[in-house]
Every structure is written in C-alpha cells, then in structure tokens.
Amino acid sequence: MASKELLVLFLIVAWTSSWGSVQSAPIRLTQTTLDTCHAGNFFGEITHCCPPATYTKGPIVEFIPKRDHIGPHRVRKALQCLAGDELRIYSEQLWRAYDLMKALPMDDPRSFYQQNALHCAYGSGAFIQDGTANLTIDVHFNWYFSPWHRQFIYFHERILQSLLNDTTFSLHFWNFDNNVDGESHGKDGCYRKGYLFPELYSDPSKSTFHANRSERPFMANLPMDLTVLNRSDIPLRFASVAVPRNRELMHRAMAVGNTSLDFHGVEFKHGDPQNLDINGGGSLEFLPHNSVHRWIGGSTALTTHAPEDPIFYVFHSNLERLWDVWQKLGNGRTDPSTPDWLDAEFLFFDENAVVRSVKVRDSLSTEDFGYSYEKVFDESWIFYDNSTSTTPTSPASPTNT
C-alpha cells in the first residue's frame, strides 16, 4: 500500500476513534435542561415537578464546595446520642427551621414543597439530556445516586441554615445501621445503637412530623428492619430477629463487594436511556437504602414523594456518611475514575434561590463541604461474619426511591 494511502487510512482510523470517544460523555444539566423540563412519569404516575420558571432564567453559577462552602467546620452527630441541653437546643433549632421552610411560598425553590419537587424531577424523567429528543435523566438505580444525594442534602441544609441565620447548624444523622451498643474505650463518639426511629421526628405537634408513614415508625421499641428490601408484606421483626439480620445485611452492602460499580451502581452516561431497573443500583442504594424507605412506608416509599417526610434528610445524611466509611475501608474500594462520572454536573438552588451547578468530582469529600461525621460503632457490622447468610438478595418491586 502506498504511503499516501496509509496516511489516509491512519487519519480515518484516528478520526473515527476520536468520534467514538466524544459520544461517551457525562450527564450535565444546563439552562436548556431547565427550559425543556416536562411532565415526568414514574412507573405510570404522571408527575409535575419542574422547578418554578420564575427562578430558572437567571445565570447558573458554578459551585465548588471546597471554595464556596460557608461557615465554620461542622460535625454532624448521631441523633441517638444527643442529650441534655444539646438535645434541647438542637430540637428547638430543627423544629424552627422546618417551620420557616414550610412557611415559604410554594413557588419558592427553597420551600419545603419545592425541595420534594426537585427530587421528584430528578427521579421521574422530567429533565431531558441536552442534544437528545427524549432521553431523560435519573439519579437513581445508577452510579450518580450517592454524589447527587450528597449535593441535595447539602443545599437543603444550607437553606435551613439561612432561615435560622446560623451557619453552624447541621442536619445530624439517623444512625440506623448501628444495631448494638459498643464500648467507647475512652474515645470520642457515639457508641449507642441507633436502630429506633428518632423521637425528634415523631411528635405530631412538630414540623418534623409526617403522618403519611406506616405504623412501624410509631411502634415503641420496634427496630429498623434493613432486610425488607422491596417487600410489600413486611413482617414485624423485633430486636432478637432484626439485629443479626441487619448486621449481616450491612456487612454485605459495605464490606463484601469492593469495586466502584459494586457500591455505586451501573454506569449512566450522556446518550444512555434512563435505567428503570432497580438492580442497577449499587449495594448501598439497593440494600439498606431501599429497605429504610420501604420500612417507613407511606409516601416515603415513593421517589416522587419521599422528601415530603423530613426524616428523609437525616436518613440520607447517614447514607452519605456510609459512602465516606466505604471509601476508608480500603482493599480496592475507590470511587470511579472515569470523566463520565467525575465530570457529571447537576443543578440545585442555594439559600438565595440562585441556580448552582456542581460536579461529581468536587463532591467526593465531606470535608470539602465543610463538615465531617461523629465517630459511631461501625465495627458492629464491618466485622460481622455473614458466612451463613439468611437475608434476601433480590428485589420484588421497583417502587422504592
């Protein structure tokens, strides 16, 4: 073959290779995404969750957590160990913050109503991928689950801080995965079991209460059952049965698989169709996450309505803590390193109702957001022997969020 023909062949191969690489791209939300928001569809439920148009026409401002977080470093604490004056002060702050958020106009993107709506939009196919006719975006059942929810909880917390005029306020966490009391051995932290539904969210007279739950959160001394997954016929399991099953499931979710996709879920890139298969979720989403939503029940079991219950935010605060724990377990447990994941970019409203864009690569560390987590007794499940597993491993329904 002549040298000129070889050169032409080389250029064709190089061009087609380059073209192929361009097709693989991260999901990014832009002004066009907001402008083309439409009614969503969540397994047959038609949703109307688009952000209020009045607030989506301004400039989109980049948000880099390490550069742009506000206030002093904060420590999110385990709810079960709050006591005395600390509990009293925090309770008053929490209830007042949600009173104020729920009093905002419904079309204010900072309002409690719109907080749920934004999660609904991201979970029901209301946003269309730029440059496509009808390919939608979802942050569930794929590898965006953990980073997107970290960003979502952060901006929710930041709005609460603004309403309180207190940048030291933190959304503490429901440590539902800790099923036994541990010994502190003089170390700082919380070593009490945290599997009971938090009392701060159980008082009907307070703004953190939500009536549309199953009976389970209202039953005294009934522990969270992390093994219900997506069952509709949920048995009442008390501590003697639930605790060993919970520890076993947490060990499997966190310590058994060690690849990034085991934990985070399947890849989802620009040009991919929305994944509606619950099996696409990683071990954190598929196992403890789905079980908690189902166990609480009521509206909390549905993607389109789950954040209508304030417990959603402290429950997910613990899930992102568990991502942090997983990162530190070692033995090959590292986050995805591909630009398709790292450069994915999502949009949120901040405390001034300004649209902010955040990349996944800037959301991998809680320290960059200005907070860390109190030490708790994760050893209760990290070292659990699950060699005689009896807990279920497969889903039965796609209706969890």
Automatic annotation (TrEMBL):
GO terms for molecular function: catechol oxidase activity; metal ion binding. It holds the Pfam family PPO1_DWL. Coiled coil: none annotated. Residues 336-382 form the Polyphenol oxidase central domain. InterPro entries: Di-copper_centre_dom_sf, Polyphenol_oxidase_cen, Tyrosinase/Hemocyanin, Tyrosinase_Cu-bd. Residues 110-328 form the Tyrosinase copper-binding domain. Its cofactor is Cu(2+). Keywords: Copper, Metal-binding, Oxidoreductase, Signal. Residues 1-24 form the signal peptide. Belongs to the tyrosinase family. PANTHER family: SHKT DOMAIN-CONTAINING PROTEIN, TYROSINASE FAMILY MEMBER. This is Tyrosinase copper-binding domain-containing protein. It comes from Marchantia polymorpha (Common liverwort).
